[in-house]
Design a protein that fits this description.
Blueprint lengths: L3 E9 L3 E8 L6 E8 L2 H12 L3 E8 L6 H8 L3 E5 L15 H14 L10 H33 L12 H8 L6 H34 L3 H7 L7 H11 L8 H7 L4 E3 L8 E4 L5 H11 L10 H6 L5 H23 L4 H22 L5
Parallel strand pairs: 1-4, 4-5
Antiparallel strand pairs: 1-2, 2-3, 6-7
Length: 369
Amino acid sequence: MQKIIKNIGLDVHKNSISIAIADEGRDGEVRYYGKIDNDMNQLDKVIRKLISKGAVLRFVYEAGPCGYGIYRYLTNNDMDCAVVAPSKIPQPSGNRLKNDRRDSLSLARLHRSGELTPVYVPTEEDEALRDLVRAREDATRAFRTAKQQIGGFLLRHDVVYSGRSKWTKAHFNWLADIAMPHPAQQIVFQEYIDTVVDCGNRVQRLTEQIRQQSQQSRLHELIKALQSMLGISLIIAATIAAELGDLTRFENPGKLMAFLGLIPSEHSSGEQVKKGAITKTGNGHVRRALVEAAHAYRFAARKSRAILKRQEDLPKEVLNISWKAQCRLCTRYQYLMAKGKKTNVAKTAVAREIAGFSWAIAQALPKAA
């Protein structure tokens, strides 16, 4: 006897899960099952009840702030589950009604028809490294804000540093010698200095943790190989690997570039071809990291001592790809600037190709047994 396939749409929130069921087949019934608490025991009761009727269950829910706990619970129990990208869920243009019931019904219906785009779900180990990388990104942002605050405070009181470089040992010594005219202002000033120091220490601690965890990660070989390229040091390499996982899951470099939102948008019709700014879809963390790496290509191609040290013990094919990338992209950066392109446009164009060369390096690595 052939088992009935049921597509289960889950609209997941912090405290609740709305459930809808779409029976397999073009004319299969789509019905709302109900709402339960966001609790694995309650979800397990629903699963047992549906399986007892001889059905094969295919679950789907949107990626969101609740993470991948439900996905891992279901897959660990040999259930079929997909996590889909909310931005790529088809939405009728005239629809002005949205609630949990409708969302779960829509997910079940669209999953049955195969119109949903699943996202890559990282392993728990990869997600831990990703959390560490994102924590450092947050700490760096707080560090930058703290420095801007102390700079703004001093500027309001007409205190200007005459040295060449800020945030050096000489600059901190200069800050320590400043005496504000009012005791309250001196307290504020000292709190700003302490915040800068604390944020700087936090960034250093997280950087060291990323270094240690990267060496223990299954992505260690990829992280090490990516560092063979100019502009990609430990943090950027760890960001790429932790956010994207195995780069070889993309069929070609063009799909990786599109996933990162680094390809031009387009609005063409008939003979008129109109392309605009990059789409900025997909993973913004990796996109920002690649644009930052592209800034290093403004100089002529060369292998510095730092790059040679990072390239030790890497396969010859990886070294050839990284040198080819450097020769091409340094020339391309200078060519775009010579044409009068804005700096950000040149860096974005180079970042797009860095993504392609990163994909090639991942392909060149020996496959794990």
